[in-house]
Write a structure and sequence with these properties.
single chain, Alkaline Phosphatase, subunit A, Alpha-Beta Plaits, 2 domains, six-stranded mixed sheet, globular
């Protein structure tokens, strides 16, 4: 009989500062509480599952259930970082002991000059910037000159923004591939990101963003699963975060709604293995823009679609809902925040009322999934399967 696990990452939905948050400038961050401060958070279905029983957000409401419906936990990040790639890799059993490089003063002139020569285009900006502000401030010059807008953030990223009428999207992707090839070693950022935009000033970013990640340096649970004949279905940017490694089928998505729809389609499929979804809007559209009301509305929307997913689960299916880092929308920073991530687990054959407390690595998720499929746990992480089955 086939087994299925549905792993959904609510991108950036952190549940409170990690002990070392101050080292990252994130003291006091709590993304879920920040979103709730808007007064618009409404998550009755997640509350029923036990989401608000998780330490860090367990004091938000008086009417939370006495115990989770099945199982919950919060997980600390062992890796040195707070970015998307590091978080997802750790979920899949790869702890990054060395932080990926960041460039608070922009990329070295020698690299920028070499990159400009490779692309045949001049470079604008080359410093940390908000993605919406950078096209507002440099977009007109880009349109006039054809120069590429290159920028970074507090995360390990090299981002290239270009107007689709000046640089066709496929050409922009090729410029990203060139950057990805060049950005290795000490310059090896986690992601090179294409950021196309359109329209008239102050412009609008399009949904044709594309991430070009480093290849994971060793096998993750995705490689172990696919290498042993199991299906690994990617929804959203999972395919890009893992540089296509270990994935057997994929679909990219433009927003949370489409990510949920594609996950629902996977729930209707007969497959044996993992469906791995990233819902990016929380982070990309709301967290990075410090939009707490929008963040709360997006969480409430996910909650409203949750019953559809639960209704489609089979007896042996397991649903895991988690995150990859924080992105507190009320702190002055518009960057990711160093936070615990939540984990809500649902399965008709699981133990009821299990609170796993605080676990010391995101990688326990990957270890548990491999354990569920009867595979050796030869990745970072400790399985908690025995505590929930």
């Amino acid at each position: 009989m086939s087994k299925r696990v549905f792993l959904i990452v609510l991108d950036s939905v952190g549940v409170g500062e990690l002990p070392d948050a101050a080292e990252f400038g994130d003291e006091g961050s709590n993304t879920v509480k920040a979103a709730a401060s808007s007064g618009l958070l409404n998550m009755p279905n997640m509350k029923k599952l036990g989401f608000f029983n998780i330490l860090g957000i367990d004091d938000m409401y008086e009417d939370i259930p006495e115990a989770p419906l099945y199982a919950v936990s919060r997980l600390a990040e062992r890796s040195k970082g707070k970015d998307t790639t590091t978080g997802h890799w750790e979920i899949a059993g790869l702890v990054s002991e060395k932080p990926m490089p960041t460039f608070p003063n922009g990329f070295p002139k020698e690299f920028i000059d070499a990159y400009s020569e490779r692309t045949g285009r001049k470079i604008l900006c080359n410093k940390p910037y908000s993605g919406t502000d950078v096209i507002r401030d440099y977009g007109k010059e880009h349109e006039e000159t054809g120069a590429l807008i290159v920028y970074t953030s507090a995360d390990s990223v090299f981002q290239i923004a270009a107007h689709e009428s000046i640089v066709p999207v496929e050409q922009l992707y090729e410029y990203c591939r060139i950057a990805r090839e060049m950005l290795q070693g000490d310059l090896g950022v986690g992601r090179v990101i294409a950021r196309p935009f359109e329209g008239e000033w102050p412009y609008k970013r399009t949904s044709r963003r594309h991430d070009f990640s480093l290849v994971p340096p060793k096998d993750t649970m995705l490689d172990v699963l696919s290498g042993n004949g199991f299906d690994v279905l990617s929804v959203g940017k999972i395919i890009d975060i893992f540089a296509e490694k270990g994935i057997t089928e994929y679909v990219r998505t433009a927003n949370n709604e489409e990510g949920i729809e594609r996950t629902l389609e996977n729930l209707d499929k007969d497959f044996n293995g993992l469906s791995f979804t990233n819902l990016v809007d929380f982070d990309m559209v709301y967290g990075h823009r410090n939009d707490a009301p929008g963040y709360a509305t997006a969480l409430s929307y996910f909650d409203s679609r949750l019953p559809e997913m639960l209704d489609k689960l089979r007896d042996d299916d397991i649903l895991m809902i988690t995150a990859d880092h924080g992105c507190d929308p009320v702190t002055p920073s518009t960057d990711h925040s160093r936070e615990y991530i939540p984990l809500v687990i649902y399965g008709k054959n699981l133990k009821k009322g299990v609170n796993l407390g605080t676990r010391n690595s995101f990688s326990d998720i990957g270890a548990t999934i491999l354990d569920y499929f009867g595979l050796p746990v030869e990745i970072d992480g400790t399985s908690f399967l025995g505590e929930i089955i």
